[in-house]
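Weekly puzzle thread! Below is a chain. First person to post its structure in token form gets bragging rights.
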Amino acid sequence: MNWVRKHLLAFVAMVTLAILLIPNVIVIIFSFNKPNGRYNIDWVRFSTDAWTNPCGAAGICDSLGLSLRIGITASLVATLLGTMVAFALGRHRFQGRATTNLLIFMPMATPEVVLGSSLLALFLNIGLQTGATAILIAHIMFCVSFVVVAVKARVATLDPRLEEAAADLGSSPVSTFMRVTLPLAAPGIAAGALLSFSLSFDDFIITNFNASPSSVTFPMYVWGAAQRGTPVQINVIGTVMFLASVAIVLGAQAVSARRAQRVA
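Winning reply:
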């Protein structure tokens, strides 16, 4: 019984992780499938045709490219803006700070249907046509909130005595920020950037409200393909994105472990 109580939490965690990974494993397996019909839902036979021709389905690589461009641009802009807002909220006291905190959390708490329709009405009222530009602005808007939360949590844990020590040693404010503050806040900034990219790349509801017929992102392509047939290339791209995410996480863990060894 003592052994069970000691390892129960780890066992439950492993089972939960396995359940969460089942859909990803299915996606990987069916990326090597050769279906007879239009739908890739029944295993027929092993094939690498989709891997050798990932752009074989009409329009799939165009939609993927658009999602990547919007996701990368939105994450970069949102990370820059969100980092500045996070430092302002975490380090300074100013009039309207509480209101700013409230406004930051509003996009996170607002249902995406409401947010998407409201942004559509705003863009039409100011004369901005739906399309890639409208999607990009919408993604930046809701990604900023997540970046602020991630970076602000990191800023709150920073020891101000390190910056004070740098100033006592003659470092200028700019040099202190670049050499001390920014490296210490880098994990939070990187987490916010990766989170904003995944949210932008994966978004469907807000994108669907503000897209045009010529601006079909990858999630919209998958939704449309599911109604007339699901090409195996969708599973291939999903597998690549999943493996890339795992590689980034493992790389970050390796870097953290190496830094911990150096400190020790």
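Puzzle host: Confirmed. Bonus trivia for everyone else. The chain has a mean pLDDT of 88.
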